[in-house]
Amino acid sequence: MTDTSETSLLSLLTPTVIILVVTTAVSLIALYLSPRLLEECAFRPYRVWRGENRDSIYLAGFVHANLLHLAVNMWCLWLFGRELAYRIGGTRFVLLYALALVASHIPTLFKERDNPQYASVGASGAISAVVFAYIVYYPQAELYLLFLPFPLPAWLFGLLYLSYSAYASRDKNTRINHDAHFWGAVSGLVFVLFTDPGAWARLL
Do 133 and 96 touch, CB atoms closer than 8 A? Predict the structure, then answer.
């Protein structure tokens, strides 16, 4: 009985669940127990260019601006990540997430390099990569959103999401990096192109 229970528990520890649990735990600690952790992990290109907080280019993905920001990102990770990880395998899924977490910040690293006031947090870039990699594999999947009474096909959701991210990136008064949303999406599409070009061939 013990062996069966342990096996069942281990089967639940998928890459998606592990990332979700770790990110949620760290984010909640930073939001409610240690505000200093939030500040230390925030991605600040101005400081990175000057040799400070270089780790923030990926650590920023484990903390969030507020509870809603965290909830939306983790909901998307759970919604899209489970099936994608099953489709492409756990190792490739973790590689996608890690690469996108860094790659999605690189354009902002250059764009805001002379802005000492800029700071952003969140896993949005990596989540976007997961969402758009999922769209390549399941373009006709129907997505139900909380504010719509009807489903959207995955490909249409992707187009609307990219359009919104490009528009919202003009707002500098938030710690949510909408540029990372856009470039994370691009990272997810490029990742699939290089690791599974057959998926793109089937899509086209």
Answer: yes
CA–CA gap between residue 42 and residue 53 (Å, rounded): 9
Alpha-carbon separation of residue 88 from 40, 98, 126, 137 (angstroms) = 34, 15, 16, 10
Which pTM was predicted? 0.88
Task: State the amino acid at position 126 in one-letter form.
Answer: A
Q: What is the pLDDT of residue 144?
A: 72
- The pair of structure tokens assigned to 46 is 């101005």
The answer to whether residues 41 and 62 touch, using CB atoms and an 8 Å cutoff, is yes
CA dihedral of 93, 127, 78, 76, whole degrees rounded to 10: -150
Q: What distance in Å separates the CA atoms of residue 180 and residue 203, rounded to the nearest whole number?
A: 25
CATH for 164: 1.20.1540.10
Mean pLDDT of 84-111: 95
Whether the CA torsion 140, 168, 26, 102 is positive or negative: it is positive
CA angle 25, 29, 30 (to 5 degrees): 115
Query: Measured between alpha carbons, how far is 193 from 144 in angstroms, rounded to an integer?
Result: 27
Distance CA(20)–CA(3), nearest Å, equals 26
Cα(165)–Cα(183) distance, rounded to whole angstroms?
10
Tally the domains of the chain: 1
Instruction: Determine the pLDDT at residue 125.
Output: 94
- 97 vs 191: CA distance, rounded Å: 10
Containing domain of residue 181, as a range? 2-203
